[in-house]
Amino acid sequence: MAVDARSVRERAAPRFLQALPSVYWLLLLPALGLLVAFYIWPLVQVLWISLIEISPNAEGLALGNYGLLFTDPGIQRLLWRTARICLITTLITIALGYVVAYAMVHVDTQHRLLLLFGVLLTFWLSVLIRAFAWILLLRSDGVIFDAVNLFYEPLRQLGVVEGRLRLVRSETGVIIGMVHYMLPYAILPLFANMQGIDQRVMLAARGLGAGPFGSFWRVYLPLSLPGLVGATILVLVFSLGFFITPALLGGGRVVMAAEYIYVSMDVTLRWGLATMLATTILAATLALVALMARIVDLRTMFGAK
Amino acid sequence: MERRSWQFMVMLCVAWTIVMFLVLPMFVVVPVSVTDQRFLSFPQETISFRHYVNMVTNEFWRDSILRSFFVSIVSASLATVLGTLCAIACWRLANRTSEFVRLLMLLPIIVPGIVHALAFYRHWITLGLIDTYPGVILTHTIIGLPYVVITVSAALANLDMRLEQAARSLGASTSQTVRWVLVPCVMPGILAGGIFAFITSWDEIVVLLFITSRNIYLLPKAIWDGINENIDPTVAAVATTMILVTFLILFVQMSTRGLRGVKKS
Questions:
Q1: Rounded to whole angstroms, how far apart are CA atoms B16 and B9?
Q2: Which chain A residues are within 8 Å of B145, Cβ to Cβ?
Q3: Minimum CA–CA partner of B32 in chain A
Q4: What is the secondary structure of A95-159 as a DSSP string?
Q5: Shortest Cα distance, chain B CAs vs residue A1, angstroms
Q6: CB nearest to B22's CB, from A40, A143, A183
Q7: Which domain holds residue B228?
Q8: pLDDT reading at A53 higher than 90
Q9: Do the Cβ atoms of B110 and A20 come within 8 Å?
Q10: Interface pTM (ipTM) of the complex?
Q11: Which CATH class is domain A66-141+167-298?
Q12: Mind telling me how many Å the CA of A120 is from chain B's nearest CA?
C-alpha cells in the first residue's frame, strides 16, 4: 500500500476529526430522507401519471394528455384566462408595490416603521381571512359594492358599460383579491433592493442638472431594475398556482388552473387531466424560478453575501 | 430639502393610499363579528358577543381550533429539529453536494401548493395516510422545513466556522458541539424558523382540502367551509381574533426591534 502525504496526515489527526464529515452527513439525512421519500417521490409520481394515465378525451392524441393543451378549446380558454389574470395581477402589484417601497426608503425611520407595520400586518394575516373580508366588502350588499355602483350605474344607463355591476364572482374581484395578497411579496423584496441603492445618486443626478423625473427615470429606475425583475417573477410564480383567493372570490365562475385541478379531482377524479395540468404549472414555475436564479442569487436567501 | 418637493408629497400620498388598501379591508370583519343576527350582517339593534362565545363553546369550532394547535405545534417542532440539523450539517460541510441539498430544501416553497397537494393526495392514498394525524403532520412538517433551513442558515452565515473547530479541539464530541455551541449561537434563527413553520401549518388549507375529510377537521377547513356556506358570523369572530393576535404579536415584535434600533443609533 502506498503511503502518501494524505494518509499520513489522516493517521496523525485525532480520530474524531477523521470521523467529522460522515457525522455531519448523518445530521443531514433525516430531513433529506423525508423530503425525497415523501415529497420528491410523490411529485415524480404525478409527472409519471400525467404520462401514462391517458384521459378519455385525450385518446389518440400524439402527446397524450399534453395534446389537450393544444387541441381542447376548454383547456385553452382556461390557460388563457389563467395567464391573463396572472399578468394583470402582476403588473398592478408591481406598479403599486414599487411606489410603496420607494416611499419606505425615502422617509424617516418612524414613518418607515408605520408603513412597514401595515405591510407586515397584511403579510402575516391568514389568506383565508383576507379573502373572507373581501367577500364581505364586494358582495352585492357590501360597502364597496354600493360605493362603486354609485359611479357605475349612471355609466350603465349612458350605455358606456354593459351589464349589472358584479364584483364578487367576477374577474375584477379575483384580481382585487390577488393584488391584495401579492402586494407584500412585491413590496418587501423591492424595499430590500432599494435599501442597497445609495440614495445620494439622486442628489448627484439633480446636482448635475437632471430634473426630478429625469433623475428618477435615468438613474434610480435602472439601478432598481434587478429588484424589479426579481419581484415581478416572484409575484408571477405565486400567482400562477394560486388557488385560495381565486376559488373563494371567483365563486366557481372565474376558474383558474389551480381550481380546475381541484375540481377535476374532487368531483370527477380525472387523474390524467389533473396531473397533466399540475405538471404544466410546475414546469412553468420552475422555468420562471430558473430565470430568477440568473438575476438574483438564490443562495442569498441563506444569508450568503 | 429637495425630498419634500411636491412630487415627493404626491408619491407619499399614493403610497399611504396603497397601504390603506392593504390594511383597511380586513377590519370589515370586526362589526360583522359583533352582529346580533344569526347570519352574516352588520349589527342591527345592538352589538352582541355571542359569536365569540360560540367560537369557544361550540364543539365544532373549539375542537377544530384545538386540533389545529396540536397539529401545528407537533409539525413545527419536527420541522424545527430536522431543519436545524440539516442547516448545521450543510453549513459545516459547505461543498457542492450540501449546497445542492439546501436548494432542494427550498422545493416546498417553490412548488405551487396545488401541485404538491395532488402529489401528497396520490401518495397518501397508497400509504393509507388519508385523513389521519400522521398524514397531516407529515405534510406540514415537510412544508415547514424550508423556512427553518432558511432562517437557521442565515443565522449560521454570520457565525465564525472556527468556533466549531475550537469546541472540537477542546475535546467536545459532535453532538456536544452541536448542542452546546452551535445551537445556542443560532437560537434566534431556530426560533424564527419554528414560528414560520408554525404559521405555515396553521394557515395551510390547499393540501388539507385534498388529504383530510371528516376525521381531521382543522381550523382552516372550518373557516373555508364557513366562507363557502356564507351564513355563520362565527367565522367573523374567528377572523377578528386572528387579526387581533397578528396585530399584537407584530406590534410587540416591531416595537422591541424598533427600540433596539434606536439604542444602536
A1: 11
A2: 31, 34-35
A3: A136
A4: HHHHHHHHHHHHS-HHHHHHHHHHHHHHHHS-HHHHHHHHHHHHSTTSHHHHHHHHHHHHHHHHT
A5: 29
A6: A183
A7: 50-250
A8: no
A9: no
A10: 0.90
A11: mainly alpha
A12: 8
